[in-house]
Amino acid sequence: MVWGIAYAELNELAKPHQLLFKIGLLGVSAYAAATFMELELSVLKVTTLPVAVEIVTVAVMTHYLLDLPWIWSFMLGSLLSAVSVAVPIPCLFRLKEEGNYGHSKGISTLVIAAASVIEVECVTIFGTLIAIAFSEGSIIGQILNGPICVVIGVLIGMLVGLFIRRFPGQKDAYVTILRTTLIGVACLFMMLGTAALGYDGAGPLGCFVIPYVASAGWTLQQKQNVERTFAFLWHFFQPLLFGLIGASINFHDIKGDIVGPGVGAISLSILMRTATCFVVLTGVKLNWKEKLFVCLTWCPKATIQAAFGPLALDKVKEMNKNEVIEYAHIVLILAVLAVLITAPLFDFLIIFSGTRLLEREELAEEEEEELRSSISSISVLTREPTTLDFFV
């Protein structure tokens, strides 16, 4: 992202093409596919309320401090409430490698599954609100646009997912690479196709539904093979995404009166979310230290903000709605601030607090081998990829 910002500042003619953002979104969809495949419905109870609290906090503060209309303030709230699994996953793997911290309590499973749910919730809300904000039809049409996007995203996602579940066959020699390609292409067409039809909110939701439905009929090993391939691809999409969003930033457009309230809104919303998470985790069998650690892992922002932050500005330019371009700039600026502040901060805090808040555990030899196998899809995120990873 820093490279992209510097490049844009040194060369004002360097403006990333909007299509590159659409292609970059495939990386987020691919990465989300790698973490959304092993979702447990039980995590819903510890995600919905904290997300709602953070969205409302951001919306209220930006509405009154930055004069954003309610539809834009809630759109920004849903964007900033999304959790980046790209930050806690490598940290969790490192903690497992160093001392198997928190394994018996299933903390890693809870964190990753809940983060996946939060991503779906926030992306769905954001997509629905952006569709309503840019709808040019009647009021009734604007209201119906959101539910229509949800129905389209879920329906197409389920149909495509069911197809990929059956094709290619289980015994195909290239089953992993074919499944990975089909999911990636399907997600890309979901993003581009629904946007072309005017239902932008359906694309991101469909990208989450497709891999979840497809993988429901696969074995654990087959899921892990596809996950490893997507994790490998993420090494290439991640710098593309963050470079593009950095190149979209023009410091001449960043006003000092935006940064202060923006940082305040981000900070307060994270505090409110953390407190709410701690309360909601009351029914979970964790001690207060473990609850605090789990709350910290759900705070960093990165991938979703990097991918969807520029969408509102792209939409404004595409539809020539210059009267709301200032609102779109505020959304982009706060998305960037959230990434720059929370990603490195909580990456450090998760590692630092993990060895102090979680209990170190020892595993028997057979249990250790099983653990290494189960998190093999995570380990690829902590090292440099090789071409062999793509042909698992």
UniProtKB/TrEMBL annotation:
One of its GO terms (biological process) is proton transmembrane transport. This is Cation/H+ exchanger transmembrane domain-containing protein. It is a multi-pass membrane protein. The keyword Transmembrane helix applies. It is found in: Membrane. The chain crosses the membrane at residues 20-39, 72-95, 107-133, 139-164, 176-196, 202-220, 232-252, 258-281, 325-352. One of its GO terms (cellular component) is membrane. It comes from Diploptera punctata (Pacific beetle cockroach). Pfam families: Na_H_Exchanger (PF00999). Its main location: membrane. Belongs to the monovalent cation:proton antiporter 1 (CPA1) transporter (TC 2.A.36) family. The keyword Transmembrane helix applies. GO terms for molecular function: antiporter activity.
